[in-house]
Write a structure and sequence with these properties.
- The chain has helices spanning 5-23, 32-38, 63-74, 83-96, 107-119, 123-133, 139-142, 145-159, 178-183, 185-189, 193-198, 202-215, 219-233, 248-254, 261-273, 278-286, 295-308, 312-324, 331-334, 349-372, 379-403, 411-418, 430-442, 448-455, 465-472, 479-514, 517-566, 578-593; strands at 43-47, 52-56.
- It is mainly alpha-helical.
- A two-stranded antiparallel ribbon has the order 1-2.
- InterPro entries: NPH3/RPT2-like (IPR043454), NPH3_dom (IPR027356).
- Residues 7-25 have a biased composition (Basic and acidic residues).
- It holds the Pfam family NPH3.
- This is NPH3 domain-containing protein.
Length: 622
């Protein structure tokens, strides 16, 4: 009664009513019902059987634990205030009326001093206090506790550096240097501030993010906090979650994820809607990933959005964000299963094709900026865009190799994704050739036209010598593709021989000018090894030409048999002449390969020079 005004007034009123009742001769109290309706927060009840009075506190803020701490304070027990108990005690003191007007240095003023001087100065303590306020609404909000904690967190986040927010690392980084690890050793023992924020409810967390945006907190920090919250709240968000940050299962269990798919879908769409747009623009202009969020986590969000059937706007926003980080993605990230009954393929190829299209749109914007601001300072930006394009080219080639085994993948879909990237995205087409070879092996029932279309995505001029050697011996490739590969391989061999000869001449000239025996001998050894390699390549080429000759001869015999069986030539005229057979063979090859060349059979034997016999000169008589 000395500390709580509510209890003091309740008991005093009860005693006064009892005195009035005794004075009036035992008449029943007429205002008891009115008092109970007015004093709904603290109610005094009388148990006639036990002849006792009880004070009932319905919906007391903080529960029995908060009331016990408040009662100990009333009886002079020293309180050990913590960030988790400060807000419940403040609300309990407000409910009991424990203000300084009733008693000096009461619980309300003491809790307010602790919150202002201790809790709000430490962001992690402010997050814990904010978490404790979730069970105290709406009283905690009306007292200003929620807004004070939110403002303190946002202000501290805005004043901190992006790399060491609140003195702790923003995200786990296995590649951090030893110096950074020693500097953040104290923070490594506990959870990061992302994990602390992830414990909040969705409404409270959204309020914190809105305050951070108003304070001008960096978009990378906001995005990282949103992704961490989604990972903590949605179970099974990322297949690689157990490899990122460690202990993903325990964190998910502590976060009390929503139970229903509808709640998870609402949470996911809220997180996606609050992702800042600045990270997309900055990443698209530089061609590199900006921010603490890894590409695999964004792909995990997209995979979860497909499972939960999120809205098209949310998926489109995620795909555009992933496109900005596509150069940093891995092949496993792109393997998004197809969850729609309308799609026959095992993986969602259409989604990857859209992401590639968004990436190219961002690259076009970056090129326009570079054209408008052409200077020496823009050279690193253009170089970064080029590296990003090459990385995406290697990524898509590897992705095509993974999905090529899908029996339901149509040739048109395979070719569309292969042709989605420009020519500058690939220095060599070896990865694309590998994907084509896997696709042809997994789809043996393709027609010749479909095989030629699939093989046509490979540019023979961009194949290395090893890839050309494999393609020339590949029985799954159409004959036209094999001939083109052999032609380009011959060009590569000629260029290699020319470079070797020029290198030998340059080495000999350099050794003669400098007079150094060691350098000249080294150059000669290198040239000799190069000649040996070229000789081996020429031998392998000769063997392949022998095989092509045998196939050509067998095809010619087969054509002759078909002509004889078809009755194209009459029996009385005898067998067709050699010139007619050659003409039919040439016309067939012309239709087959779309080119014209003289009809002749290749001969791989070594050429010999035969002297032409001279005619005797006839002298004319004068």
């Amino acid at each position: 009664m000395s500390r709580s005004k509510k209890i003091h007034d309740l008991i005093t009123n009860k005693e006064s009513r009892e005195a009035v009742r005794r004075d009036t001769g035992g008449e029943p109290e007429e205002d008891a019902g009115e008092i109970r309706e007015e004093e709904v927060e603290v109610v005094l009840e009388e148990d006639e059987e036990a002849d006792v009075h009880r004070i009932r506190l319905p919906e007391f803020p903080g529960g029995a634990e908060a009331f016990e701490l408040a009662a100990k304070f009333c009886y002079g027990v020293k309180l050990d205030l913590t960030p988790a108990t400060a807000a419940p005690l403040r609300c309990a003191a407000e409910r009991l009326g424990m203000s300084d007007d009733h008693s000096d240095d009461n619980l309300i003023s003491r809790a307010d001093r602790f919150i202002s001087q201790t809790v709000l100065r430490n962001p992690r303590d402010a997050i814990r206090a904010l978490k404790s306020c979730e069970g105290l609404l709406p009283l905690a909000d009306s007292l200003g506790l929620v807004s004070r904690c939110v403002d303190a967190i946002a202000a501290k986040a805005a004043a901190s550096t992006p790399t060491a927010l609140f003195g702790w690392p923003i995200a786990d980084d296995a590649r951090a240097s030893d110096r950074q690890r020693r500097k953040n050793s104290a923070a490594a023992a506990g959870a990061t501030w992302f994990d602390d924020l992830a414990d909040l409810s969705l409404a409270t967390f959204t309020r914190v993010i809105a305050a951070m945006k108003e304070r001008g907190v960096g978009p990378e920090v906001i995005e990282g906090a949103l992704i961490a919250y989604a990972k903590r709240s949605i179970p099974g968000l990322s297949r690689t979650g157990r490899h990122v940050g460690g202990g993903g299962g325990a964190a998910t269990a502590a976060g009390a994820p929503p139970s229903s798919d509808g709640d998870q879908k609402a949470l996911l769409e809220t997180v996606i809607a609050n992702l800042p747009e600045e990270t997309i623009k900055s990443s698209a202009h530089t061609g590199t990933a900006v921010g603490a969020t890894a590409a695999r986590v964004l792909f995990g969000l997209l995979r979860t959005a497909s499972i939960l059937h999120a809205s098209e706007a949310s998926r489109d926003m995620l795909e555009r964000r992933i496109a900005a980080r596509l150069p940093d993605a891995a092949v496993d990230d792109l393997l998004i299963p197809s969850y729609s009954y309308l799609v026959e393929t095992l993986y969602d190829v259409d989604c990857v094709e859209r992401v590639v299209r968004y990436f190219l749109e961002g690259r076009d914007v970056a090129e326009e900026v570079n054209e408008d601001e052409r200077s020496e300072a823009e050279t690193p930006g253009r170089e970064a865009c080029r590296r990003a394009m090459l990385a995406v080219g290697r990524l898509i080639d590897s992705y095509l190799g993974e999905i090529a085994t899908d029996a339901n993948l149509k040739p048109d879909k395979f070719c569309d994704l292969a042709w989605a990237l420009p020519d500058g995205a690939r220095v060599y087409d070896d990865g694309l050739y590998r994907a084509v070879d896997i696709y042809l092996k997994a789809h043996p029932g393709l027609s010749e036209e479909e095989k030629e279309k699939v093989s046509g995505v490979v540019d023979g001029r961009k194949l290395t010598l090893e890839a050309c050697t494999h393609a020339a011996q590949n029985e799954r490739l159409p004959l036209r593709t094999v001939v083109q590969v052999l032609f380009f391989e011959q060009l590569q061999l000629r260029r290699a021989i020319a470079r070797t000869i020029m290198a030998n001449e340059g080495g000999a000239a350099g050794s003669g000018e400098e007079g150094g025996d060691s350098d000249g001998g080294g150059t000669w050894r290198v040239a000799t090894q190069g000649n040996q390699m070229l000789r081996l390549d020429m031998d392998s080429m000769r063997n392949r030409v022998h095989e092509l000759e045998r196939e050509c001869t067998s095809m010619r015999k087969a054509i002759e048999k078909m002509d004889r069986r078809g009755g194209a030539v009459a029996t009385d005229r005898g067998t067709p002449s050699s010139a007619a057979a050659d003409g039919r063979w040439g016309s067939m090859v012309t239709k087959r390969f779309g080119c014209k060349f003289p009809t002749q059979v290749c001969q791989s034997q070594q050429r010999t020079v035969v002297a032409r016999p001279r005619r005797p000169r006839i002298e004319q008589s004068p």
